Amino acid sequence: MQARTNFPHAGDRAARAAGGTDLSPPFLPSDPVVLEGVSRRYGTRRNGVQALSDVTVSFASGSLTAVVGASGSGKSTLLQCAAGLDTPSSGTVRIGGTELSGLSRRKLSVLRRRQVGFVFQALNLVPTLTAAENIALPLRLDGRRVRRDVVARLGEAVGIGAQLGRLPHTLSGGQQQRAAIARALITSPDVIFADEPTAALDVVTADGILSLLRQAASDPGRAVVIVTHDPAVASRADRVLVLDGGRIVTELAVPDAATVGAILQRQGARR
């Protein structure tokens, strides 16, 4: 499978109800990620923390979803569980129709490598590898052939074609983020998760990164899900999910920065 490098435009996006919080099944068969009744608790029953509580949601192909909420609301835990990087205490997660709880550790790793792209907040680029080598790493880990022309085209598509031979520490923050996005795209995944992809970037660079993610989400066979604390970033998504206390309390089908900002301000005032 070769990387999609031309960011094709999506066809019709899956319809979502405007406003409200009814996120119950049935889900569309084409939805690449589905969570049903997912809860995640850390620690003991007496002294633990309930990070997620009975979350049911799906992410549609050809769409960009932003997940927002105050610190500790469960945003990153939702992303980790949806991507198969963390195991729910209860409930089910399906990626591409495959339920993750039924997979062995090896099969889960293979599924994540082939069907999931993840852009970590810390980026996690390997410091001793060039940008091109970092981009190609998921293919090498999967034992697949690396075609230099595909890596080069993908590097050009994300705007770092001239920097592919450089090590991460010689790249700007925006260039490193672009390399991380290219690495997430190289396997042509069904879904890309990005944790605070525009954090610590200036406004112009952040806008470029968000435009890349929007382009990636325009593929009718792929969903993109981002966690963000920035109402302006969230307003660029097709829908916004608001978490509070480990639950999805609001879904905005037509998000705008003012509405998202007001919701986050109210959450912050209660803490």
Summarize this structure briefly:
With 271 residues, the chain is of the alpha/beta class.
Distinctive features:
4-stranded antiparallel beta sheet, 32% helix, 6-stranded mixed beta sheet, 271 residues, alpha/beta
Q: What's the arrangement of secondary structure elements?
A:
Elements: E1 33-42, E2 49-59, E3 63-68, H1 75-82, E4 90-95, E5 98-99, H2 105-115, E6 116-119, H3 131-141, H4 148-158, H5 173-185, E7 191-195, H6 203-217, E8 223-227, H7 231-234, E9 239-244, E10 247-252, H8 257-270
Helix pairs in contact: 3-5, 5-6
What does this structure look like?
The protein is an alpha/beta fold and 271 residues long. It has a single domain, classed as 3-Layer(aba) Sandwich (Rossmann fold). Helices cover 32% and strands 23% of the residues. The strands form 2 sheets. It has a 6-stranded mixed sheet with strand order 6-7-8-3-9-10, sandwiched between helices. A hairpin with a 6-residue loop joins strand 1 (33-42) and strand 2. The radius of gyration is 18 Å and the shape is globular. The protein starts with 32 loop residues before the first strand and ends with a helix. Residues 1-25 have low confidence and may be disordered.
Using only C-alpha atoms, the radius of gyration works out to: 18 Å
Strands, count:
10
CATH superfamily: P-loop containing nucleotide triphosphate hydrolases
Helix vs. strand class = alpha/beta
Tally of contiguous helical segments: 8
- Distance N to C terminus: 47 Å
Main sheet makeup: 6 strands, mixed
Mean pLDDT equals 87
Task: State the name of the first-level CATH class.
Answer: Alpha Beta
CATH architecture: 3-Layer(aba) Sandwich
Strand content: 15-25%
Q: How would you write the strand order of the largest sheet?
A: 6-7-8-3-9-10
